[in-house]
Amino acid sequence: MVVVDAQYVEPFTVDLAVQRKSVANSNGNFTVVDVNGNVLFNIKDTLFSFHDRHILYDANDKPVLTFKKKLRSIHGRWQAFKGERATHKDLIFSVKKSAAPKHETELDVFLVENKEETACDCKVTGDWETKSCNVYAQDGSTILAEVHDKQNITNVVVGKETFGITVYPDVDYVFIVALVVILTEIKSYDSSKKKKKKKKKKAKKSSDSSEDDKKDKEKKVEEEEEEKEKLQVKEEIKDEEEDHVEPEEQEEQKEEEEEEVVVEEEEDDDDDSESESDSDDYDDEEDDDDYVVETNKEEPNHDEYNNDEDDEESSSTSEESPKK
User: Fold this and answer.
1) Where is this region: Disordered (predicted)?
2) Are 143 and 33 in contact (CB under 8 A)?
3) Residue of 202, 189, 210, 153 whose CA lies nearest to 31
4) How many structural domains are present in the chain?
5) Phi, psi angles (nearest 5°) of residue 74
6) Mind giving me the DSSP string for 237-304?
7) Residue 72 belongs to a domain with what CATH number?
8) What is the 3-state secondary structure (H, E, C) of 160-192?
């Protein structure tokens, strides 16, 4: 199966190792080596590109293949072009996510001859997290290549960013390498997108939580203010009740006060009357005493007077009697 060039097709199984660099250097983002650790290809990014453009160079630094992400694509389609130019006439194949995937990882591959794209020419399925994926032919059962995490290759550091590829006989291994690199970029983009989404969600949650805390604080302050207002109203009502007396109560209070005044006046009058009575009695006693004294002193002795008169009369009678 020739896709890129017949020189990359071998009648035997080809084992390769792909190492992705966390930091790009002059040799590119990806390095592809054979079982002996010999560098076969380097994949480099094109700087200042909006298409996530990558160029695959051979060991002699000759551009073999260019693949880039197509803009405004619903399923994240990638296109691969022969050589360094990315023109329509150089298009070799395209890759996109399956519309109805049955696996965690599922890509549909369409060769340039497949204009209708009613069915894919190849399919990539499997679990990329465990680096366990297969590339199938159009029939869906014939395996063209396998991706795994086993590396029995010298001069290659085993790690998370390193994985192995086993290309079956008579299959273009540059084509397989391009598919695997595109798959890596798609998964990397999805992972980054998920992280951003998660971070955004977390920030929103934190913001919502902060907003909720703020609302709770505001609500608490409002409740405290309402409680203070209620207490203030209660105190005002209590003060008004103490200051305000109903008309009936006022009348009763007035009558009670008048009765108290009358009682006090009567008591005062009684006290005055008793005092006057005592005084009158005392005066009467004094008058009586004075009267007795005066009477005894000035009244003549009628008995003596009468006796004197009787004596005089008797004397007169006796004188007249001899004359007769």
Assistant:
1) 200-324
2) no
3) 153
4) 1
5) -65, -45
6) HHHHHHH---HHHHHHHHHHHHHHHHHHHHHHHHHHHHHHHHHHHHHHHHHHHHHHHHHHHHS--HHH
7) 2.40.160.200
8) CCEEEEEECCCCEHHHHHHHHHHHHHHHHHHHH
The pLDDT value recorded for residue 188 is 78
Residue 46 lies in a domain: yes
Q: Is the dihedral of CA 294, 295, 299, 303 positive or negative?
A: negative
- Domain membership of residue 303 (yes or no) is no
The C-alpha atoms of residue 34 and residue 118 are separated, in whole angstroms, by 36
Share of the chain above pLDDT 90, in %: 27
String of DSSP letters for 63-113 = EEEEEEEPTT-TT--EEEEESS---GGGEEEEEEE-SS-SSSEEEEEEETT
The per-residue pLDDT for range 17-41, each reduced to its tens digit, is: 988 876 555 455 889 999 888 999 9
Say if residues 125 and 133 touch (Cβ distance below 8 Å): yes
pLDDT at 12 (0 to 100): 95
Taking the whole predicted model, whether its pTM rises above 0.90 is answered as: no
Q: Does any domain span residue 304? A: no
pLDDT for res 316: 46
Is there a domain that residue 178 lies in? Answer: yes
Angle 292-295-296 (CA atoms, 0-180°, nearest 5)? Answer: 85
Q: What is the tens place of the pLDDT at every residue in 162-203?
A: 889 999 999 999 999 999 999 888 887 777 666 666 777 777
C-alpha angle with apex 277: 272 to 281, nearest 5 degrees?
Answer: 150
Summarize pLDDT for 274-283 with one digit per residue, the tens: 555 555 555 5
Both tokens assigned to 175: 């084509």
